[in-house]
Hints:
Blueprint: E1 16-20, H1 31-46, E2 51-56, E3 75-79, H2 86-89, E4 95-98, E5 110-115, H3 119-122, H4 129-145, E6 148-151, H5 154-163, H6 165-168, E7 172-174, H7 195-200, E8 207-211, H8 220-234, E9 239-243, H9 251-259, E10 266-270, H10 274-283, E11 286-289, H11 298-305, E12 310-313, H12 316-322, E13 327-329, H13 334-345, H14 348-362, H15 367-379
Parallel strand pairs: 1-2, 1-4, 2-3, 4-5, 5-6, 6-7, 8-9, 8-11, 9-10, 11-12, 12-13
Helix pairs in contact: 1-15, 8-13, 11-14
Amino acid sequence: MFLKKCQISRYGEVMNIAIDVRSILKKEKTGIGYYTFNLINALAKIDRNNDYALYSKIRFFSRDKKPPALPGENFRHKIDRFNLGPPVVLKNTDIFHTSAYDLKPPKGAKFVITVHDIIPKVFPQGHPKDVLEKLDNLLKSVLAAADVILADTKCTANDLKRHYSGQTGQKIKVLYPGVGDEFCVLPQEAKNLYKETLLKYNIYTNYIIYIGTIEPRKNINGLIKAYKALKSGHNIKQTLVITGMKGWMYDDVFKLTEELGFKKDIVFTGYVPCEDLKVLYNFADVSVYPSFYEGAGLPILEAFKCGCPVVTSNVSSMSELAGDAAVLTDPYKIDSIADGIYSVLSDVGLRNSLAQKGLKRAAEFSWDMTAKNLLEIFKGF
Length: 381
């Protein structure tokens, strides 16, 4: 029995809280996976009273999925082996939290959903019409069913109000994500200690780094064209390192790289685990995040935490997260991206100033604070 003796369920001394952790079952995590992983670990640090069930779907004998380690004694796994869904698997649940649109909450549970972005509405380019319609219908359904809708940023909250006013009502709350302590500043004099990490990814010179999925919305083609402008106009020596998994419609990125003759100047690392990402951020000359749209844009905060200066877009949530700690550029103008990057590469004073501002800005976003604020929302039911 999960509840401890003498404890009261349903909003008494103990709440039964279920959290969807399907996004962290595979070794290679996406942004939502890291969000969920850090969230449950932060909750475990601050809440030893309530009981948590980590909901996942793993078939028997699955080789590619593995439940995460339990972060606390008051956490347990609830593995859905037969795809029955939360209403069947999660009995006696007071609160159910997910970041996905494909689940129904357990009967009688308060339903809390985190919406990281609404890309199908705000940036539909690159998605087939039938996929957009399916996502739109799923999102409408879960927003209408939710008791509380959490948005990572004010930008996403405003997008939700604009596009889904009929489903959201007064249910939206902004809950900023944190940036993990696994990201930190490494001493520059220790670069030789991490040389093997850089060599592992074929990085041999100073470099500009991009971190994120390879897909049209991320504007990697724009970054590559800006890199070409920098090579042609300023003869920069830095390699461009593009780090992240292939998403969809990524062929154009590799085609453009080949057409411009940059196969030796641009390094594609593929997926990089957190322990290596920290190193790549630390020793990059600048981190560039030129996306057309982001619900949050965690790589901005990760770079800040590692003392790496950032150039990012002046649209959607990126300027909201960056504040005055990054160089903001127009993602639709190649010259703007190129000028932003060059301003950092050519000015040591600006580079150092951005690094210090970034560290201060990152300190405003902690997973402990995110978990604390989420727990207060749970207690408010």
